[in-house]
Write a sequence for this structure.
């Protein structure tokens, strides 16, 4: 598999500190199907060992207890920029003294009921698709976005994300950087007159109600964020959907050290790839698990029009959720504006596209995709502090 890193033309997308206006009301979050499905899944786990880290209580289950496990794509041979001043952090299960499960088992972190009862209210959907008339700062109910996207047929993509401990005003808020691979205008099951987006998502988030420290997260929706629960939509391993295959990295993993404003920088490479009927997630240097593509075609009269057959768009963005009524003080990224540059502002860089299920393209081959992506971000410089660094 050829992997062309954005070397001649790397995209360094510095995310602004959040500037907001207006107020919002929090979304009510009663017990619902999501809670029931999450608790049922937890009760059905075949737990063979439980370990504890500083941030997570982890149950270990036999990998085969999840069903037949698919084979991952070939390893990626993506070289890091030799001139980069950022380092790769360690996962909590890689730290000295970390206790692992028995061979053949995989980690499933526990979640608390208070978090579950609010979880379905928090994922606000995708930012608006951009046009030349659209400002990058978007406000949607309780959610704020800084985003860039491209409508392009693809089988996934990868990028490198900065890893700051974003300030959140309270434990019910979150601040994230993420990618979303999407299929748009998919008929909603049991409601063929309506359409919505299907997504697989992953990124870096500070969401204390979910995990006490900043961590890796995943998310999926099969019905445009209208429902949640087993094989419908949800976070991490809360409900049925995600299949865990790695014994070290998992959705919910805490990494150390983190980036320091004006100090050392750490970063996380993440990306999805559709391979042999599964959306696999790459994290740092390996495939760690997948979403079965069959979830997205279930109940659909035309499976070819779903995410099971590939995507038609890709997003890279920052998002915060505010749970309080008053204007939030939660930061996006480091809390610094893009004009402060590398070492201060948060960023997304080294964007790679999968135009087919077996290849990766970097800047020298992305052609119109990257040119359009860059031109759209540069347009935003007219009114917003977003910095693009080209090398």
């Amino acid at each position: 598999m050829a992997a062309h890193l954005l070397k001649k033309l790397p995209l360094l997308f510095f995310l602004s500190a959040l500037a907001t206006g207006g107020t919002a009301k929090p979304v009510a979050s009663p017990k619902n199907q999501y809670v029931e499905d999450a608790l049922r899944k937890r009760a059905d786990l075949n737990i063979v060992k439980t370990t504890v880290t500083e941030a997570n209580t982890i149950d270990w289950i036999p990998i085969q207890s999840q069903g037949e496990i698919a084979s991952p794509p070939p390893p990626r041979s993506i070289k890091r920029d030799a001139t980069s001043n950022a380092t790769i952090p360690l996962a909590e299960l890689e730290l000295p003294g970390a206790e692992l499960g028995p061979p053949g088992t995989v980690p499933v972190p526990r979640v608390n009921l208070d978090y579950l009862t609010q979880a379905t209210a928090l994922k606000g959907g995708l930012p608006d698709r951009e046009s030349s008339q659209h400002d990058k700062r978007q406000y949607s109910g309780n959610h704020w976005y800084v985003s860039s996207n491209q409508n392009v047929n693809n089988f996934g993509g990868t990028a490198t994300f900065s890893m700051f401990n974003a300030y959140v005003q309270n434990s019910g808020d979150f601040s994230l950087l993420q990618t979303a691979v999407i299929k748009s205008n998919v008929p909603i099951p049991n409601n063929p007159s309506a359409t919505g987006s299907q997504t697989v998502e992953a990124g870096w988030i500070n969401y204390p109600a979910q995990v006490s420290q900043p961590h890796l997260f995943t998310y999926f929706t099969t019905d445009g964020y209208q429902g949640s629960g087993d094989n419908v939509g949800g976070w991490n391993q809360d409900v049925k959907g995600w299949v865990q295959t790695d014994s070290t990295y998992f959705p919910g993993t805490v990494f150390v050290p983190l980036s320091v404003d004006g100090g050392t920088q750490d970063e996380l490479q993440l990306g999805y790839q559709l391979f042999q009927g599964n959306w696999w997630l790459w994290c740092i240097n390996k495939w760690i698990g997948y979403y079965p593509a069959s979830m997205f075609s279930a109940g659909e009269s035309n499976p070819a029009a779903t995410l099971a057959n590939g995507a038609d768009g890709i997003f890279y963005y920052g998002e915060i959720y505010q749970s309080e009524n008053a204007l939030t003080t939660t930061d996006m990224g480091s809390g610094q504006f893009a004009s402060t540059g590398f070492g201060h502002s948060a960023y997304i860089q080294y964007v790679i596209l999968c135009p087919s299920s077996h290849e990766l393209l970097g800047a020298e081959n992305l052609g119109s995709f990257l040119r359009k992506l860059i031109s759209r971000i540069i347009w935003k410089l007219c009114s917003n502090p977003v910095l693009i660094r080209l090398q």
